[in-house]
Amino acid sequence: MHHNGNNFQPNPIPSTGINEESSENGVDLRKLIDKFISNWYLFFIFLIICIAMSWMYIRYTTPEYKVQAKILIQDDKKGGDIPGKEIFQELQLFSSKSNVDNEVEILKSRSLMQRVVQDLQLYTSITAEGHIKRSELYGNSPFYMTWVHLKDSLRAVKYTIKPVADVTKFSLTPGKSSNTITAAWGDTMHLNEGDLVMRRNVNYAFEGTYTIDMTSLDQAVEDFQRMIDVSIPNKQVSTIDLKLDTKVPVKGETILNRFIDEYLKASVDDKNRIADSTIAFIDNRLVIVGQELSGVEKEIQNFKQSNELTDLTEQSKLLVSGTGDFLKQLTDLQVKLSVVKSLEEYLNDGKNSKRVVPSALVVEDPTFAGIIERYNMLQLERERQLLSSTESNPLIKNIDNQLAGLRQDLSTNVASVRKSIEVSIQSLQTHSGELSQKIRKVPAQERIFLDYSRQQSIKQELYLFLLQKREETAISKSSNMATARVIDHAKTVARPFRPKRSLVYLIGFLLGLVFPTLIIYLKESLSTRITHKADITGTTTVPILSEIGHFEGGEMVIVQRDSVTPLAEQFRAARTNLQFVLSGASDKVILMTSSMSGEGKSLIATNLAAVLSISGKKVVLMELDLRKPKISTYLGLKNFSGFSTYIIGKTSYEELIQPSGFNENCFVISSGPIPPNPAELLLQEKVTQLFERLRQEFDYVIIDTAPIGLVTDAQLLARYADATIYVVRQNYTFKQQLQIVNDLYQQRKMPKLNIVVNDVRKGDRNGYGYGYGYGYGYGYNVSETERPLLSKLTKKIRK
Question: Model confidence over 495-505: pLDDT tens digits?
């Protein structure tokens, strides 16, 4: 026996460039490019589909537009004052300072949006049902909706409206109900939500189906609050940008303009509230003072009539002229006292605790005037904060505490001022005693008339003062302007912001690349067959001897003496690499095996024998796949006798060896009849003698055995072999079967184990991926039998 199975040593062949990678990254990039190129049709199909879907999405998606507006806040802190403000300040007109951040919060308040939703009935929308998409109608609807009466509690509901045969009528179906209401245009319909009147808009055709969507008021307010964006573009200026996203530009512009109008109106109303309070107070005092003045004048008239007096002025001229200064001082003090008492009554009335203090009647006291101004500002600030907060808010509580303190200070100051005036009046009245002594010298009628005249003068001065203040307050009210003014009214941007054509097409293009890439990745990841060289090198370290391309012909022998086909050159390359494996002078026996049947083991063994015999070596091919022999059948050799009959002594050695028929240097030992016990035959001593004799007579002995993954025949013959070739077939051999090769290599059960990859398809770049067109054509003569095959391969390469 030439070898002992326990002394087998792995002997990888020298590097031939077949199983080594020059650069891992480079090879990966090449494999990636090869996959893409070989599956170009997948990328083409998916790109067309995805781009078409992108076009469909753009075509049938309702575009959304941005509606923009800009307002300017008159903010003292940021230079937002209006020209000529100093003039109004000199007239003591009312103004309230604001800042941009506070106005932003007011614009975001729910109450402001609720007024807009209620005014425009934004809780109702009309939609036209199209073949593919639905379109909201606003201003171009074929009918008008008027709610005669609407219940306070709205709920989400949908109505379907359709035309009927009678053009003067229509049908209305609530939700998914089957209760259809047929009514005439202009009729009042009593629905669950309220009383509705539908009127026809003859400017637009009434065809198809329309949907009326109603939502709750709270939900509508919340939705539109979320849709409107209020932002400050620059902290250095006092402008506010308003933006609204909408699918109907006309509707968006209407909503935003109404929103701004409501905000401006609310701002003016806040300023007018102080003026209205002051005017109401003055009007009330004018009625009282006017009645008192009329009473005094009536008493003077009665006195003159009863005493038949005509002119007492000349009679009391000297007395009146002497006491003129005194009366003037006393009158001023009494006027002030009357005003202070009125303010004191106003402050002590609990009903006015949440109202502003009329500042037009402020006594000429800087401290007192400052407290009133601060008190009124806090009252307005409290009302503004309540637009977006509740009374339980800590900020509101803080303002209430400040107001309570200021109101107490006001009461204290009013009492102090009143007491001061009363002391002054008392002092003047003390001096009046002295004048009374002089007045007693005047006739009784003239003295009584003087008292009436003094009362008339006091009431008249007070009445004129109140009239003057009322006119000033009316002027201030007429000059009140909103906190903000509109710079740009609502305007829709020309192009829709959604969908973005470029982005949609880009996504479609990327998906057109991602989907086929994913398919290829999943196909390879889930594949259980060997498709790439990495499937082999990543599982086992057994060297790859050669790669044999795909063969579609029916001939068993591919390699002829003058063959220059790519397949023939691959077998010649295998022969060259085999010389490195069989480096010893006595290394002659080559064992061929595989994982399972059908991997091309017999084809490779036959053509390897052919290429070795062409080089002038004497080769014998042994068909030792005793269970399923193929070589003798494919070569047309008789198989009535062979190895099985030789072992049992029915065939002689000379009869055992027969010519191959395709080369004079190649001989074949057929399997013979299929024995019932192939493994026992291989254990016979006569097998050892046969191999010793074949080693002496032949240069190479090639053994075609049964698949090692199924039976143990190959392992039984391994002790006679010098090298083992394990055949692996692309897209046929299972990846897990490579573990057999790895085990054989690591456990040294087979001598000099090498792998030959069979059926590598050049056209299938997504497969093994290395091709086999070496391009050998150095003037070799092509035989007539090989020309059709070569022509066929040339056409495939060109394709």
Answer: 888 888 889 99
